[in-house]
Amino acid sequence: AQKITQTQPGMFVQEKEAVTLDCTYDTSDPSYGLFWYKQPSSGEMIFLIYQGSYDQQNATEGRYSLNFQKARKSANLVISASQLGDSAMYFCAMREGGYSTLTFGKGTMLLVSP
Amino acid sequence: DTGVSQDPRHKITKRGQNVTFRCDPISEHNRLYWYRQTLGQGPEFLTYFQNEAQLEKSRLLSDRFSAERPKGSFSTLEIQRTEQGDSAMYLCASSELQGSRPGNTIYFGEGSWLTVV
Predict the structure, then answer these.
(1) Over the stretch B41-74, which tens digit does the pLDDT of each residue have?
(2) Alpha helices of chain A — where are they, by DSSP H?
(3) How confident is the model over A46-66, as pLDDT tens digits?
(4) B91: which chain A residues are within 8 Å (Cβ-Cβ)?
(5) Rounded CA gap, A89 and B40, in Å?
(6) What's phi and psi for A84, nearest 5 deg?
(7) B-contacting residues of A 9-48, CB under 8 Å?
């Protein structure tokens, strides 16, 4: 079974609008972390935001926020006030407590239009 | 620039040749990871080191692949007798030593693109 599922292959948004990228996960480990990365065409994976399974509040980093719904096992990324430079692939990833590595979803391509 | 650096960024090789990629992690990061990413997919874990010790290897890492991290600093990933299926981007990443929580961020380099013709 897929541990990380990103159901949106592509998303389109106009500049200055908000957009939500979906991510659901599957784990039986009570301790885990959820990450979002941005990958522009250059290839580098850029860390955006982290949410721990025990964190009481949703994570926020500037224009990025994570809508964490633990019971639904979802960790959606919200980008407010989209910018042209936000056009990229976005990956959701999970690290389970007993492991050192990340498991990634297949990604969502975000295109921001003027 | 103090991020993760990888070299070369692009490599085109003929099938059957050997290739080697180098990764320099963020200074003082104990853990170093190698991932592979093919078109339309997310990165897949290959192997990781804690200092100079290789602690885990994925089933994706066939006998033709070998990774080293001498002295716990930079790392090399060698692919012997390359095949067309090896064409992918090879990403290196590093992190601090993981504590009791899974939150230590893994920082990635820009990747090394391999094309086997």
Answers:
(1) 999 999 999 999 999 899 888 899 999 999 889 9
(2) none
(3) 999 999 999 989 999 999 999
(4) 43, 45
(5) 10
(6) -55, -35
(7) 31-33, 35, 37, 42-47
